[in-house]
From TrEMBL, chain A:
Chain ranges passing through the membrane: 12-33, 39-58, 125-149, 156-174, 207-236, 256-275, 287-314, 326-346
Membrane topology reported for the UniProt record: Multi-pass membrane protein
PANTHER family xrefs: HIGH-AFFINITY BRANCHED-CHAIN AMINO ACID TRANSPORT SYSTEM PERMEASE (PTHR30482), SLR1201 PROTEIN (PTHR30482:SF4)
GO MF annotation terms: branched-chain amino acid transmembrane transporter activity
Pfam family, one: BPD_transp_2
Entry GO CC: plasma membrane
Protein name per its UniProtKB record: Urea transport system permease protein
InterPro entries named in the record: ABC_transp_permease, ABC_transptr_urea_perm_UrtC, LivM-like
UniProt keyword terms in alphabetical order: Cell membrane, Membrane, Transmembrane, Transmembrane helix
Automatic annotation (TrEMBL), chain B:
Top-rank taxon, per record: Bacteria
Signal peptide: 1-31
CDD domains found in the cross-reference section: PBP1_AmiC
Protein name, entry field: Urea transport system substrate-binding protein
Taxon lineage: Bacteria, Pseudomonadati, Pseudomonadota, Alphaproteobacteria, Hyphomicrobiales
Xref: PROSITE patterns: TAT
Keywords tagged on the record: Signal
PANTHER family recorded: ALIPHATIC AMIDASE EXPRESSION-REGULATING PROTEIN (PTHR47628:SF1), PTHR47628
GO molecular function, one term: amide binding
Keyword Signal: yes
Pfam families to which the protein is assigned, alphabetical: Peripla_BP_5
From TrEMBL, chain C:
UniProt GO BP: amino acid transport
A Pfam family: BPD_transp_2
UniProt KW Membrane keyword: yes
Single GO term (MF): transmembrane transporter activity
Subcellular location: Cell membrane
Family: Belongs to the binding-protein-dependent transport system permease family. LivHM subfamily.
Main localisation: membrane
Highest taxon in the source lineage: Bacteria
Species per Swiss-Prot/TrEMBL record: Amorphus orientalis
Transmembrane residue ranges: 6-27, 39-56, 62-81, 148-168, 202-223, 235-258, 270-294
Protein name (Swiss-Prot/TrEMBL): Urea transport system permease protein
Amino acid sequence: MSETLQRRLEILAYATFIAVILILPAFADIFWLNRFAKYLVYGMLGIAIAMSWGYSGILNLGQGLFFGAGAYMLAMSLKLASPTSLAQGSDTPVPDFMLWNAEPGAPTDLCCITGGSWLWMPFQWVGFGAFMGIALPVLLAFTIGTVIFRQRISGVFVAIITLATVLLVRLLVIDLQPITNGFNGLTDLAWLTIGGFEFDPYLLATYYLIAGILIAVLIGARLLVATRAGLVLQAIRDDSNRARYLGFDVPKYQTFFFAVSAGIAGLAGMLYVIVAEFASPTFMDLTFSITMVVWAAVGGRNSLLGACIGAILINTIEASISETEMFVEAWKAIIGLIFVLVVLFLPRGLAGFAQDASAWVVGRLNRGEGSPASAVGQTRNQAAE
Amino acid sequence: MSFNRRSFLKSSALAAGALATPGIFHRAAMAADEIEVGVLFSQTGGLSIIEKSLSDATLMAIDEINSAGGVLGKQIKPLVEDGASDPKTFNEKASKLIIRDRVPTVFGCYTSASRKAVLPVFEKRRNLLFYPTYYEGFECSKNVVYTGAVPNQQLSNFIPWIINTLGKKKFFIVGSNYIYPREMAKVSKILIEQNGGEWIADEYLELGHSEWGAMVNKIKSSGCDVVLSNVVGDSVVAFYREYKNQGISQADLPICATVTSEVEIAAMGAEYAAGSYTSFPYFQAIDTPANHAFVERYRKFVNDPKAVTHHAMASSYFQVFLWKQAVEKAGEATPEAIVANVGGQSFDAPDGKVTVEAANLHTAMTPRIAQWKADGQGEIVEAYDHPVFPLPYVAYGETQDNLFCTAQGLDTSKLNQ
Amino acid sequence: MVDILFIGLSLGSILLLIALGLSITYGAMGVINMAHGELVMIGAYTAVLAGIYLGANIFVAMPLAFVATALLGWLIEAVVVRRLYGRLLDTLLATWGVAILIQQAVRLELGLTFFGIQIPGLGPGLQNVSVPEILSGTVAIFGEEVNAYRTFIIFVTIVLTVLTWWILYRTPIGTQVRAIIRNPQMAAACGIDVKRVNAMTFAYGSGLAGVAGVMMSGFKTVFPDMGTPMVVDGFLVVVVGGVGSLLGTVAAAGLLGEINGVFASVTNDILARAVVFATVILILILKPAGLFSFKGR
């Protein structure tokens, strides 16, 4: 398949996907729209994972850390804006849970109701929460990335370090109950309000807010990986030593893309808070972080669009099976089986399958030209291991 | 960003308008000759062990009501959803039941984390949750009917009894690192000091943790003479086992627990808990014909001759009947009508008489204390002779004469005093 | 102080018990087996079922569990893992799927619940195994009363570790395994049947998980989800110890166990867990290949 044809097919795939999520509201009721909005957020996580795993070869088993950090930052702002926080009878809003975690006789004021509650003060301005929702994950990723990539740590060791980090942070968030509300997480949040408009999670406008951001992220990410930096990154993934000998500052590129991926995950976390109306330490569970990686694997780790669709697809399937009366108890087994089968028989995920299929069709049409695209794809895939 | 009550109401109305007009909001549920209700517990994941039994008890109650002719002449149709032990899933399934299926009521949730995750959906969509678990209090939602015990119903007789009857005065408080145990510890400390005891430690372990070596060693060397356990979930099992295996006898240093129920006892093996105490309104060992019949029916229903019954499960069962009475009184099954009529409803439950208090939608029930025996059953050693009024804000000074949670909602001015 | 060190030793031995099988499969085969925790769970259920149907105690259950999980491991290797050699991260994902399948199989009593058939001992509920009288309570060691069951776990762990060492370093098959650890291609070129050895290695590692499960059943709850947290702890130990190094695994388990035990006693369990995670991260950053490691893989 010629380069231009492949490119045209890819553009077609992106355009189709974007068109589908834009016209979806015409076919779905408000409940499914809210649900799809959540899945679009998961799709954004898929993009974040494809970027760090597929394009950089960095398997992050702690993506939940960045998702959770983004979610908590915005949730803190929305918590302070909720009616219950405003009704505590003090000058500044105070989250209700701080009252039951406070020592008896503590002043009902955000500055000093419990140790560390002053950290919440800037979050009274929702813009700060939204800013931190991206800034904190990026900062965390930058710090972690700088340390581990300078040490030339790669492969499974990155996976284990990120995994240990997310578990450590989760533990601390639960333990710092007076200021995080521990295991219960942040609930009873206000709706995000921009210019007087409230983004009720069950409004069409909220769906389009999420869909719009997803489309922007998808296109932005796709353009980013096609830049020179993105190409260097893929060269590093395929052979980091060679890239190093060629004079590229390998850790710099890896850290940059790791941080971009974290920023996307943080953004996804914020959007999730808007549609689901809560933030919880379970966002930082090991299971959730691994599950995200599986979504990306099913969709195709080497394709931003594939990973995104994979996440949306699996969640839709999961919801449908688990709500079928017969499978209420067995749905997890079915999901497990799908994981195994995809890894065994579609190693490059649905995206790889689609590429192969289109190459085969085009090959048949052109006769004799064969399917070099799939061969290229396979070598690329092997190199990514 | 400002957010006041008026704009909140306005936006809720807007939301309701966006969904459908209120009149046809529950159309699906009302038009047919059956009433659909949601049943939302974990069928999978770590918590399904206990939540499955809550789900079964709910379905059994629905089954019994249906065989007796249903409610308002209609059959109840349960829509069972799986929360998968994950707050994210609970949230999603709750919105499915409320917004898609338009059920007028959901029976469900076990952990506080899952309840907190679904609460915004119920409050902003003005639906109704019947919540069967004992919990930490500090909640005053007009969209939840609470049928489990709150701290004052588990502790107000327990602590004085430990100090006066057992004669134990030095408490080691231990719990899972979670809201419920921490809140229970807070109430306990107040009661311990009021009754002339002292607490010498207040320690927590990660939720779901099962490594008790260091903690039990601490208990051993702390010099306490009683352990107050607010440990939750399967950690309970590892705790009692380690306790015995480090050679501590329940006779010298008894564990007095607020969570350990028949389920955990059966799971750990009865010999490990024999001699320890638990406070709950309901025990399988309650010796009344009503309870014997209940246990019998439940075992038949789940097709397991050895199935145990426990507190949250008994609440899961009787709350369906309270709901039915409210629907009948209201003459219609809408969340508003049910809430308006559920207050004051009484029912002769397996635990005895239970009443939903109109002021705070919590349930008055009879606290009991049991000592566990070698056969895995509790022997009731102490019980109130009347149901006790539920006080969800007891840790903050709430009394029956000075309610914080009233029919008008939470009076936050009292909270700040 | 002795009691605190004993707790640390006990924690370390439990970690090692779980990590031992992982260390072998990961070191020799480059397979990250996320279903290892589920194999531990199957081992625990073997003890439960042996107790119910055979009236057997945990001593009898140990060899039974070894055989049962080794067979299951052999099956997983033949059906899934074999197709994924060299694709390290794919084995992680595929075995994660396998783990979910095994969990659900136990929870749904192998699917028989759909036909209304119940198997006592399986299902979603909590199960327990009673511990023989001789192992409950305390024993006196060096004048200190210590938990008998924990002492037994330490003993079993030592026996299994020595046995594994003996197999690896004193038998022909062990030599082949070590050759594969160093360089699989070269080993194959020297006429070693890598596939057969890998299958046996995987089965042996799985069998060790089964024995670990029996030991766990004596003091933890047995239920379908019990394995998931264990596999994480196991992996931290293996990676910190250094891939393919038995000595490293032993050292890492001991180190992390003692850190956990001492910090839990001096401060609290939550902080101790946090310190363990922080130690793991620090070690991996400073010594990315682990405490003890071979060059080569």
